[in-house]
Amino acid sequence: MIEFKHVSKVFHGQTIIDDISFVIEDGEFVVLLGESGCGKTTTLKMINKLIEPSSGTVEINGRDISGTDPIALRRRMGYVIQQIGLFPHMTVRENIEIIAKMNNRDKGRLEQNARRLMEMVNLDPDQFLDAYPSEMSGGQQQRAGVVRAFMTEPEIILMDEPFSALDPITRTQIQNALIDMQTALKRTIVFVTHDMDEAIRLADRICIMDKGKIVQFDTPENILKYPANEFVRNFIGPKRIWTSPEYIRTRDIMISDPVCCHPKLPAFKCIELMGRKRVDTLMVTDQYKRIYGVLFAESLIGIQDLKKPAEELMERQFTSVPPDSSIVDLLTLFDEKHLSTLPVVDSQGIIEGLITRSTLVNTLSRQFIQEKKGA
Length: 375
Fold this sequence. Notes:
Elements: E1 2-11, E2 14-24, E3 29-33, H1 40-47, E4 55-60, E5 63-64, H2 70-75, E6 77-81, H3 92-102, H4 107-120, H5 125-128, H6 138-151, E7 156-160, H7 168-185, E8 188-193, H8 196-202, E9 205-210, E10 213-218, H9 220-225, H10 230-236, H11 250-253, E11 260-261, H12 267-277, E12 281-285, E13 291-296, H13 327-337, E14 341-345, E15 351-356, H14 357-374
Helix pairs in contact: 3-6, 4-6, 6-7
């Protein structure tokens, strides 16, 4: 665990970091995000003591690192920067094993780790382990740099805009490889970028900084949906949520008070209720909102026995979705099953809301309304 407690940094009378406090949990991927000069790289470098705080404390696993030998501290951490830093006179194997050898790691284990990690970043170990950096592309060299950071099996890996110089395709490929590595190895990663899309793609949580202060520290989903202030709102942009539709949840767009009726409600009362509420569908539920079926207006057309209860007219087999499903899931269901309505039901069978085709159309149209307003 990494913890900053009221940390500030002053350079030549100018406050670069202004009384920041936060905690990064073990195995968490946190992205420090902000404009140039906001203090994100300074914050990163205080974790491995490349920069010392002017006040406050930085703790790792509950211990203040101010008295820790910086060389010993750095050997326990992985570090990846934009300038890859592979030694040109060494092979890839020698480059990625150099710190691990300083830490007296077993030779057999080094070989095993090297091959496994190379495969995880899509570098053929038979082809590249004994190659020199000059024989590799920039993207391949950066992959080797990522492998080197993981080779010592560190608890913490620091990454300072490592992919910013790469072309978009290579960048996406290495991001995917990093996601796979983190899923498998669960290191604590602190990653600096100024790219919001990269942050959303990689992070468990994002720390947005401005002028040395933390303005919001939250999950990508919450930052996209609930920006803390105008700075964050402008930084992420009004349409950013539409580039990550998986964060638009059913609960965000559903009709939260669908029209319901009791299973024993007679047909003529159901017709009256539909007319009064101007709906063509009723959710058939008990007094605890537990859903039993869906009653469509079509089932009431031409009915002879107007006293027949809703439970005898409703559809007992119906498709539903949980509240945390994404808009992508909804679109797929509506398309594949040709639905007109979709009850939102929790794990206990309680109805929480309703999605209709109109709901989806209205939601999807917002991105174009926002685009027009921003024009």
